[in-house]
Each structure stands twice: as C-alpha cells, then as structure tokens.
Amino acid sequence: MSRERAYLAVDIGGTKMLCGIVSMSGEVLTQDRTPTPQHDVWDALAALVSRVQASRDVDFVACGVGCGGPMSDQGDKVSNLHVTSWQDFPLRSSLAALT
User: In the predicted model, what is the mean pLDDT of residues 84-96?
Assistant: First the structure.
C-alpha cells in the first residue's frame, strides 16, 4: 500500500515556529509549534520538523515556508528578519536534507 501524499507547511515567526502536515485536499492532518529561540534557531526548527514528520507516515510532495524577510532569486537562501543570525541561510537545502 502506498503512503499518503501531503505537504509540509512551516511558519518561522519572531516568537514561535509552527509546522504542520497538510493533505492534498488542504486538511491539516497534524501540527506542532515551538517558541523561536534567540540562538540555535535551525536546531529548534529541525527538531520541530522531525517531530511533526515522525507523527504521520506520508510522502511529502512539496514544502511551503512562510517567514519575514527576503529570499534569494533562486529561492534557496533566506535572510529572515526575525532571525538575525540567518543572513543567506540555506533553508531550502537544509529542509530538503531533513525531510
């Protein structure tokens, strides 16, 4: 039997980070949140994504990320205004390696 296909949704804010799994029809299947730390933001985000990913056996077809700040023209690096240590952070490849 094939696994359910779904989307990974991530919101990186100044006070909290939210991650969820969304069905192909748009239903939120599971979600979790964690405070946005001042330091080691990637470690906290990776732990959150891993926790959410482990809660449901799905194949991700895409990942959507919301965060304040500019992204490179190629869409691979972000400079998040809420996470000042993230200047040209390789978010796309980091999330791809994690999921």
Answer: 89
For 1-99, where are the alpha helices, taking DSSP H only? 41-54, 91-98
Summarised one tens digit per residue, pLDDT across range 55-78 is 999 999 999 999 888 888 888 888
With H, G, I as helix, E, B as strand and everything else as coil, classify residue 87. Answer: coil
Strands 4-12 and 58-67, by their bridges, are parallel
Residue carrying the six token digits 């952070």: 89
In the chain, count H helices and then E strands: 2, 4
What's the total number of domains in the chain?
1
11: nearest Cα among 37, 30, 36: 36
Q: Is 21 buried (19+), middle (13-18) or exposed (0-12) by CB count in 10 A? A: buried
The amino acid that residue 31 corresponds to is: Q
- Domain span including residue 58: 4-98
Please report, to the nearest 10 degrees, the dihedral formed by the alpha carbons of residues 32, 52, 64, 66 taken in order. Answer: 30
